[in-house]
Amino acid sequence: MKSDLFADGIGAVHITGNLVRFDLMSLQPGDGQERQEITQRLVMPLEGFVNAFNLQEQVIRQLTKNGLLVDGRVFPNTSVPVMKEEAQGDI
């Protein structure tokens, strides 16, 4: 791996042909409230998007099984343990 990429979330998703583009955003302090700022764009082919989605579903199932998620929400003040990264990206 060459570098890390950080985003607070996805600001928007655009689909053009077989490419899926994610506008990654970071939260920036503003006048009394945070504002979203698009910082980078992640582009992947449709097949890569589907594979990433399937992997994220596995992660969500594991987090739910471990009690860190309930109804898709993270418990407040809960630290998330580092998950062991397998060579194949499997959980």
Automatic annotation (TrEMBL):
Top-rank lineage group of the source organism: Bacteria
Protein name: Uncharacterized protein
The species this protein was found in: uncultured Sporomusa sp
Higher taxonomy: Bacteria, Bacillati, Bacillota, Negativicutes, Selenomonadales
